[in-house]
Design brief:
Mean pLDDT: 88
Order of helices and strands: HHHHHEEEEEEEEHHHHHHH
CATH topology of the largest domain: Butyryl-CoA Dehydrogenase, subunit A, domain 3
Family: Belongs to the acyl-CoA dehydrogenase family.
CATH superfamily of the largest domain: Butyryl-CoA Dehydrogenase, subunit A, domain 3
Low-confidence stretches: 384-392
Distance between the termini: 34 Å
Number of helices: 12
Structural class: alpha+beta
Radius of gyration: 22 Å
Helix content: 40-55%
Pfam family, one: Acyl-CoA_dh_1
InterPro entries: Acyl-CoA_Oxase/DH_mid-dom, Acyl-CoA_Oxase/DH_mid-dom_sf, AcylCo_DH-like_C, AcylCo_DH/oxidase_C, AcylCoA_DH/ox_N, AcylCoA_DH/ox_N_sf, AcylCoA_DH/oxidase_NM_dom_sf, Mycobact_Acyl-CoA_DH
Strand content: 5-15%
Largest sheet: 4 strands, mixed
Oligomer: single chain
Protein name: Acyl-CoA dehydrogenase family protein
Number of domains: 3
Number of strands: 8
Keywords: FAD, Flavoprotein, Oxidoreductase
Length: 392
């Protein structure tokens, strides 16, 4: 299929399914069934097996037609992390069960990876899954879980073999958050909000049919998920002067009386770095479209966190005493998180979490050093197992 044939297919679909007259969920289901959800996914799973690079134009054509979206800000973990992982490692039955309601937003997903004693060292997690007939009984605690208070399903990594090296004894599961034994508690952040949660798993039974990948392959599957997460956070498509640099540039233009040569120099330097990061993100997405995603996503995520923190700090300095004001510290549990939303005080505080969530900057720098630059690896308990073998 050519790009022109794809455009015609979209036009024909819109003629049959007028967005203004079709109920939202009915429209999204029809779009998925027509292969116009993820066009690079296989036929029968919301796609047509086409180049991923065409996805942006597909979404633009639907947006211009006034079509409803699938709430990506609420279900970012499902769309950006769970879906590509299920496609890569799931059985046909799992793909049929989970991908359609995930894409339409009928089922929201969260991520049960980090633990109080295993955040940066994910392979050191202690949550246990023990086989009991056709089920796995899971016990443990997860932390920093975005959206757990409204998610229906979760991607979960648990230890199934405590005697194996820590990277080898893990298995990956799909966990129903409504099952007995799943307890979600809010974690209030420095912003006053509680977008994160801690999750306690007490004798939660997960059927073996919800195991993703082979037994003991949890690290391999989780690595694929994390690579997608880092691209989703740090390498997402943005226009020139989009994101935080656009917010700070607008603040600069609107406050000429606050400008100084030193602030001007810093803004110019950060503007250039943000543009370089945006262009590098395009390259990463092109590699992803060709199925060649590697550890480069770690570098994108580190850069995203650093720029967000430096730019938000610059904005507070630029605004002076006005930047010290904070509009609302009410405890709420939001569904949507906008790094550039609200006021300068919120942006400054929220950016502090960017270097922790989605992989700490310290760990991601290790990944870049060892797997991109080829520098000597730091000591590990399983140092005799190369990175390339850990991901097999």
């Amino acid at each position: 299929m050519t790009i022109d044939e794809l455009r015609q297919r979209i036009a024909d679909f819109l003629a049959r399914n007028d967005p203004a007259r079709t109920e939202r969920l009915e429209f999204l289901r029809a779009r998925y069934d027509a292969g116009l959800a993820w066009v690079h996914f296989p036929e029968g799973h919301g796609g047509l097996g086409l180049p991923q690079a065409w996805q942006f134009e597909v979404d633009e054509l639907f947006h211009e037609a006034g079509a409803p979206d699938n709430n990506p800000q609420v279900n970012g973990i499902g769309l950006g992390m769970a879906a590509p992982t299920i496609l890569a490692f799931g059985t046909e039955e799992q793909k049929q069960r989970f991908l359609r309601p995930l894409w339409t937003g009928e089922e929201i997903w969260c991520q049960l990876f980090s633990e109080p004693g295993a955040g940066s060292d994910l392979a050191g997690l202690a949550t246990r899954a023990v086989r009991d007939g056709q089920d796995w009984v899971v016990n443990g605690q997860k932390v920093w879980t975005s959206g757990a208070h409204y998610a229906r399903f979760a991607i979960l990594v648990a230890r199934t073999d405590p005697d194996a090296p820590k990277h080898r004894g893990l298995t990956y599961f799909l966990c129903d958050m409504t099952d007995p034994g799943v307890e979600v508690r809010p974690l209030r952040q420095i912003t006053g909000e509680a977008e994160f949660n801690e999750v306690f798993l007490n004798d939660v039974r997960i059927p073996d049919g919800h195991r993703l990948g082979e037994l003991g392959e949890g690290w391999k599957v989780a690595t694929a998920t994390l690579n997608n997460e880092r691209v989703a956070i740090g390498g997402r498509a943005a226009p020139r002067e989009g994101g935080m640099v656009g917010v700070v540039s607008r603040t600069w233009r609107e406050n000429p009386d606050r400008r100084t040569p030193e602030l001007h120099d810093r803004l110019l330097r950060l503007w250039v770095e943000a543009e370089v990061a945006r262009l590098a993100g395009q390259q990463v997405r092109q590699k992803l479209a060709k199925g060649r995603l590697g550890p480069e996503g770690a570098a994108m995520k580190v850069t995203f966190a650093r720029l967000n923190q430096q730019l938000s700090g610059l904005e507070v300095e630029l605004l002076g005493e006005q930047g010290l004001r904070y509009s609302d510290w009410t405890m709420v549990r939001p569904e949507r998180v906008d790094f550039t939303g609200r006021d300068a005080g919120y942006r400054y505080l929220r950016a502090k979490g960017n270097s922790i969530e989605g992989g700490t900057s310290e760990i991601l720098r290790n990944i870049v050093a060892e797997r991109v630059l080829g520098l000597p690896a730091e000591p590990r308990a399983d140092k005799d197992i190369p990175w390339k073998d850990l991901e097999k």
